[in-house]
């Protein structure tokens, strides 16, 4: 132990057990990064010494003061030599957490999941909510509609198996016109043999035809007859919310049915169908693209959608599911539909984009598209303010989007 004279010039030769001069005792100890406490034992009593923050040339020290210098040495001020106890404790340095994540509850179609993050070093943890996945329904016609009975379409979630059904309206009965009636009867007559019995039958048919035609006409305001109007739209959208949109788009040559009379509004839309619809919407002459080469190796050059995909590819409307795959026959999701239509329209992002209850589950590449298109009323969410980005989109929903763009 090194003893130094006090502030008044006392020397170490003056030190004794009874000396009252203030002595500085230097304990050479590496106490860096440690918490230091000192205790003195005098006359059977333990006393904690007072720790100062650092040495100060202007300070006046008193008995029981101490400080730790930059080198870790302990400076003690005392008037009497005695027994000292030094307590050292490592100081706690600021800890940077290193978290690992683990799914502690899997999300389902209707319930949130949970992700737990735990620090590998100290064990600190916290949790985050994983949004619900939402149902991913695919549809199948389980009972075909006829002119006398309704059909049934069954929707089944590919994730959880939940299902529900929807009634398909009856198909309208085939309208009988004067032209088709006459034609069919000429055919059934075998061309006529000239026999009296044939002529009699022909007269009877003619009389019946006139009666039939009279029954199948209606009076106008001025008393004349007109043929009953024939429904020209798709039979399976009649009376549905999408009827007007689908039929008007069909009249403009933008959408077609799965058959001549059926649109299949509740069936899923494929990626190939979407780019074909956009090409139709834009009135593109696709003949110029038929002989070009696509970078997508899964797009057959003989496929009906080949030219439309090449057009969309060249105009940066579609990027594919990978560098060389487009997945043309895959059912397209709602968020992918939004992203492709957003690029097709070439509009600027909306700074006041709409948000949905499940916006967190929308993929990063589609967030701007979904927000902007929804704020402009082009694409809509569901009544519960969800968007269900991963769900497939139906042909009716797509028709609604194209109709809103055209408007």
Question: What can you see in these coordinates?
Answer:
The chain is an alpha+beta fold. Helices cover 24% and strands 21% of the residues. It has eight helices and 16 strands. The protein has helices at residues 178-188, 196-215, 243-251, 271-282, 306-314, 334-345, 364-375, 395-406, and strands spanning 2-4, 23-27, 34-42, 45-48, 50-51, 65-68, 74-78, 83-90, 99-105, 113-119, 125-130, 137-143, 151-157, 163-168, 217-219, 225-227. The strands form five sheets. Strands 1-2-7-6-5 form a five-stranded mixed β-sheet, with no helix packed on it. It has a three-stranded antiparallel β-sheet with strand order 4-3-8, with no helix packed on it. A three-stranded antiparallel β-sheet has the order 9-10-11, with no helix packed on it. Helix 6 (334-345) crosses helix 7 (364-375). The radius of gyration is 44 Å and the shape is elongated.
Summary tags:
single chain; 407 residues; alpha+beta; five-stranded mixed β-sheet; three-stranded antiparallel β-sheet; 8 helices; 24% helix; 21% strand; elongated; disordered N terminus
Number of helices: 8
Give the overall pLDDT as a whole number: 78
Order of helices and strands: EEEEEEEEEEEEEEHHEEHHHHHH
The class by helix and strand makeup works out as alpha+beta
Q: What integer value in Å does the Rg equal?
A: 44 Å
Instruction: Report the uncertain regions.
Output: 1-17, 174-228
What helical percentage do the residues reach? 10-25%
Biggest sheet layout: 5 strands, mixed
Chain oligomer state: single chain
Amino- and carboxy-terminal Cα gap: 94 Å
Strand content: 15-25%
Strand order of the largest sheet: 1-2-7-6-5
Tell me the overall shape.
elongated
* Strand element count: 16
